[in-house]
Fold:
Amino acid sequence: KYLALAARWHIRGAWGALSGGMLYPRESPSREVKDLSGLWSFRADFSPGRNAGFEKSWFSGRLSETGPVIDMPVPASFNDITQEAQLRDFIGWVWYDRELWVPGRWLSDEGLRIVLRVGSAHYYSIVWVNGAKVMEHEGGHLPFEADVGNVLRKNPSQPCRITIAVNNTLTLQTLPPGSIQHMDDPTMYPPGYFVQNINFDFFNYAGIHRPVLLYTTPNVYIDDIAVQTSFADNIVYQVSVAGSSEPAVQVTLTDKDGRCAATSGGSSGTLRVTDVNLWWPYLMHENPGYLYSLEVRPQAAASRPTDLYALPVGVRTVRVTDTRFFINNKPFYFHGVNKHEDYDIRGKGLDWPLVVKDFNLLKWLGANSFRTSHYPYAEEILQMCDRHGIVVIDECPGVGIKDIRSFGNASLAHHLVVMEELVRRDKNHPSVVMWSVANEPASEMPPAGRYFKELISHTKALDPHRPVTFVSNSNFNRDLGAPYVDVICVNSYFSWYRDPGHVEVIPIQLKTQFENWHGKYQRPIIQSEYGADVVSGLHSDPPMMFTEEYQEVVLQNYHKVFDQKRKEYVVGELIWNFADFMTAQGTLRVVGNKKGIFTRQRQPKSGAFILRDRYWRLANETGRLPPWTRYPCH
Ligand code: BDP
Structure:
């Protein structure tokens, strides 16, 4: 019964997913933003079918009138906020609501759109305003929004109530997939007992993970902007304006100092900049992360207010050959990390102190890049990457696709929608240099060939200007997706999951791995994961698994081979993982995955120092650093 419900949610999830742009809400003279972060009322639906909230219409009045509610911070995962294991491990619908006053002038001005936007909620969401359903969305990690002006204006003298129901159930057709298993043996399990099975290695945190905002735009408004940059025609832009049939558009590009660098008119055009400042990665140039501001103004009728949206734009190119990855026509070597959005108490909720701390650690480490393993990260994080020059491989939540039933048409259709939502959201970030459509799918299964062929060609059609990859751990000879990627990304855990304890096998196995993959596909290769678990503070010499010394020697053995092969076709190395992170409970995990080079609280293990020495050495060899950044004087 529960599975049937889950299947129906999926079908409903598809509607509305693709209409309109998804510009990040920014304030301007024509746009105001009201952030609804803070405390919301919260109630998990513990009823046996998890359906009481719908049967009793919890959205039609205050949640507190339906039964007991607790305070819940937004943004945050709900799992680790209380002392209840039942809530930590809850599967099903949870309900949030809060009341607020909308500024009177927003309501009285019929020339304004009022948009409600959820930065992300995991996994399936339904949103009501004053009891009226305004939107549904399938999938975590990506934003969704609706114009709620009409609903709000029906009742201008009352506070407005926003209700959000979120369901974290994963099925074979969700992304990531999972399955609900009912335990029917009454001698072993209580009645109605079920568990959520998953095939990915991070805790399935849930709730409202990113800010909920109300923002305004004029009725004639900029719905979307797309830029493509190059050396000759520096910025080719396209603007879509909604609310007007023939909008005139004025575009001004200003530089970092606020000076006008170029202007243009029309909803599409080209901006050429004299002595253009390129966007460079961190440690590749003395002035990384240079951003212009593209100010777009549609000209509405004289009586109406004019919209203004200012998009940060970096001018850079990306190109791949069969042995190299180029940024601005210079070979780029990824020396970086894989991350997770994960921290004590807030789980996957956006947390500014953590975000800034992590960027400080990345810079300390000399990392120039990361992969958003295994789902899209907050837009605020990508904006930091743009500004600091941290290069990003932008991954969708295609992780744990291991069951053959997750390669069917329904799964593929949803995966395509997710890639569209991701490209729509992130296409203008100069930091994003490649899309990753999946992590370690069972790509040797027969349907994987057609699945990845379609998925990758669809992604290239959405964005012809960026390379596309997926991350493999299959046998190179049997990988049915690899023929379609631009860059081979491969994960391996020599001396860990295979040959545990035998670090001496790493060099030979790693060399074979690279030679096999490059020999067969003639593509550049990124070692997209490698590493070893360390319980911080455990020591042994000679090294043993789980000690700091063991992680050090695993890293050193990998690095020897990277140094040989980066002269040929290896274009990057991303450690697994930047920091320890929470996982489901299991015999292989001691309160989470401990492969971090930092603890979950961001303190370095000894592996961090090995990597820091290496990354600064690589940067000194390959980059152009100003004297003050030269390690160890930094
Ligand atoms: C890789 C997965 C990653 C895991 C890692 C591990 O891509 O999500 O956390 O293994 O086991 O295969 O540590």
Q: What stands out?
A: The longest strand covers residues 221-229. Residues 201, 374, 439-440, 473, 491, 529, 576, 593, 595 surround beta-D-glucopyranuronic acid (CB under 6 Å). The CA atoms of residues 91 and 325 lie 43 Å apart. Residues 1-19 have pLDDT under 50 and may be disordered.
